[in-house]
Amino acid sequence: MNTHSIQRAEAKDAIKKIKKEGLEVHILSGDSKESVEKLGDHLEIPLHCQHPEHSTFMKMKWIKDVQQDNKNIAIMVGDGLNDIPCLQEAGIGISINAKSELNINAADVVILS
Asked: Which of 9, 62, 65, 72 is deepest in the core (most CB within 10 A)?
């Protein structure tokens, strides 16, 4: 998740609605700690739910652990080719990139705009 996501007002609104339903929102990102904290602050996601500098493998392990330990369904939202394995690992994979056939095939849901 890049810091350019901060500029999208609907992201903050969507996260508020998700949290209002009692669901927990985490940021799993390969970006730096500083970038993730800035995004987390803007989106009102607490520090313990921010996971910066995560490789694709680390994200996949985190998703798998959450789903096994808590018997929850993890929903993964990804925007790049590196997110494809995570979209497939998650109970529900949402791609916000329809530019690649690989993303489209890996995701359960594709957001076109």
From this structure: 62
| Domains of the chain, start order | 1-54 (no CATH), 59-113 (3.40.50.1000)
Question: According to DSSP H, which parts of 3-49 are helical?
Answer: 9-20, 33-43
| Distance (Å, whole) CA 39 – CA 5 | 8
Q: How far is CA 7 from CA 27, 63, 65, 106, in A?
A: 16, 26, 31, 26
Q: pTM of the predicted model, to two decimals?
A: 0.80
Per-residue confidence of the chain (113 residues) as pLDDT tens digits?
454 444 567 888 989 999 999 989 999 999 999 999 999 999 999 999 999 999 999 999 999 999 987 778 888 988 888 889 999 999 999 888 777 888 888 889 988 87
Q: Report the C-alpha gap between 63 and 54 in whole angstroms.
A: 12
